[in-house]
Every structure is written in structure tokens, then in C-alpha cells.
Amino acid sequence: xxxxxxxxxxxxxxxxxxxxxxxxxxxxxxxxxxxxxxxxxxxxxxxxxxxxxxxxxxxxxxxxxxxxxxxxxxxxxxxxxxxxxxxxxxxxxxxxxxxxxxxxxxxxxxxxxxxxxxxxxxxxxxxxxxxxxxxxxxxxxxxxxxxxxxxxxxxxxxxxxxxxxxxxxxxxxxxxxxxxxxxxxxxxxxxxxxxxxxxxxxxxxxxxxxxxxxxxxxxxxxxxxxxxxxxxxxxxxxxxxxxxxxxxxxxxxxxxxxxxxxxxxxxxxxxxxxxxxxxxxxxxxxxxxxx
Length: 291
Fold this sequence. Notes:
By secondary structure, this protein is mainly α. The chain contains eight helices and three strands; from the N terminus they run αααααααββαβ.
């Protein structure tokens, strides 16, 4: 049987991951901006801006996790865990601005052609290095996000994973520009914009279920586990929801009407324990009805 992870332990683990990735992402952003400035490449600048959102998301994630870790209070009786989903969703706003600026620059360069871009071996090597860093960051963050069931880590990992494809496209664009195809940089900048838009949609789709209280668990699974507890005649009126990795469940169980109050409460407690251990539910509310 599994026991749900401690909320404070999970929060600390996510914060450690974000702090480590922040250092790596800042290094990548600085390198890309330097190469973009040296080459005058819109695609590299767009890639740098896109990578800067990764660093910004790390900072935002650290702030959000401080809020999400707070327990229930008078204004938030279910706690603050949904702030993690809001943090993951907020990155879409920054991505939208990036897409607009990148498309604007690409159109201007297509309508007013410039000299082919030139990149030397050192600059190309630096871009290749950032590509390897992004591959590692994406792998590490995805692994940590799945282990900790963290929406903000998984969303950021998806964002960084596309960075790998974007940087590859940027390097290809610089090579094509050097071969005498100046239009390649602008066209690939448009491709970069499309990829960023796709990432934004993925983050939106991942964040929304928790924000609109989509069910966290199949009602049949909850019913089966509850009805396996001795003394439970049936389980019904089942509801579940999730906030980040915290699962909430509510159900009504029917018990023998001849049971006294203390016995009925023991059965309800057993149902709560079974749901916590078997289905990894953090908060369980069990209503008892005689039958």
C-alpha cells in the first residue's frame, strides 16, 4: 500500500528542484542572448526569450510554492494548493507576449530583407552547449515532476523540452543563412512562435482540470475500496477533486442501523484509512447513514 507524501516534504523537494534548474536556465539565457546579439539573429533572440521564460517560471514557481504550501485558513478552507496550478497557467501569459514580439520581428525582416547572418564556430558551439543543457534540464525536471506529481514542474519541463527543438531549428536557420538563405531566420522564427503556442496550449490543458474541479479518481474505484471495509453495506454520493498533488474525496457509507455511534465512527475511520493508503487520497470526508 502507498501512503500520500507529506505536503511540506513535497513542497521542499519541488523548491530544491526549481532552485537547481534556475541556475542552469540563467546560464542558458545569457549564452543565447550573447550569441543573438553577436549574430543579429531573430530566431536566436526568440529562443533566448523563450528560455528566459523558463528561468522566470522557476522564480515564479518558488514564490508560488511558498503560497501553495500554506495550510487551510478561514478564507481558504481547502488550503492553497491550487496556486500551483495557477502558477503553471500564468506562464501562458508570458508566452503570448513572446509570440507577438517574435512574429512582429519576423514579418518586419521578411518585408525588409537584411544581410545573411553569420555565426562563427565558437558561437555555434555555445548554442550546441545550451542544447545539451536543455536536454538534461527537460529530462531531470520531467522525472522530478512525475515523482512529485507536480503540475508546475511538468509544465515547465514541457516548455523546456520544446526548447530543445527550437534551439535545433535556430542552429539550422543560422547554417542556412550562412549558405545564402537570409529568409531562413525569419521563417524559423515563425516556426518557433508556433511551437511556443503549442507549449502554451499544453500548459493550459494540464492546469485546467484542477482549477475546474475535475474528478481526481474514478467513483467506482472509491466505491470498491470503501465497500471492502467490514461493516460498510454500500458507498454512494461519491465526489473527488484535486489541487496540485493533493486529492480530496467525499462519500457516504451505509452501515447497519443497529450499530452504535462509536462502532459507526470506527467503520468511517477505517474507510478513511483505506482510501488514504490504497488510492493515495490526502483528505477524506465520510458521511455515515444507517440502513
